[in-house]
Amino acid sequence: MRNSLEDWKRVPTTASTLFGVDLPYRPPKSAVGAFIWRRRIWIETTWGLSVLEPWEKLLVLAIFYLLTTLVFTGVYKLLPQQGPLVYARMLYYVFGHETKGVAGATSVRHLVTDWARHNASIVPW
Q: Pick from 87, 89, 100, 96: which is nearest to 115 by CA?
């Protein structure tokens, strides 16, 4: 029944469009399902997934989902630890000197007056 007329005429559901291994020929009747179907057609034809067998498609998608999960997990775990360090380095590059601590440099007025005081001593007049 895979290449039959009944399979070609069948209107799929949104769930079969989203989770099915085989891509249906026609879009679902709902607007959301039709949007998902168009995006899936675009992705599968762009990346060549439409010419793969189902087990090959599952293998490629499983590897893609695994790598995506690892990247997002790494960003979620690493970004909060690197935030204060990035902030301190940004202050160093913007103002030209290191502050004693990130917590002591929270006031913008303090940062601007410290920067002006530091740069006023450099001017030769």
A: 96
Q: List all residues 6 or more positions away from 91 whose beta carbon is below 8 Å from its beta carbon.
A: 98, 99, 105, 111
Rounded CA gap, 30 and 13, in Å?
8
**Distance between CA atoms of 23 and 57, rounded to whole angstroms?**
11
Spatial separation of the C-alpha atoms in residues 59 and 4, rounded to whole Å: 27
Whether the CB-CB separation of 48 and 66 falls below 8 Å is answered with no
pLDDT tens by residue, 42-82: 988 898 888 888 899 889 989 989 999 999 999 899 888 88
Measure the CA angle with vertex 17, ends 57 and 37; round to 5°.
95
**CA 43, CA 36: separation in Å to the nearest integer?**
10
Give this prediction's pTM. 0.51
Dist CA 83 CA 77 (whole Å): 11
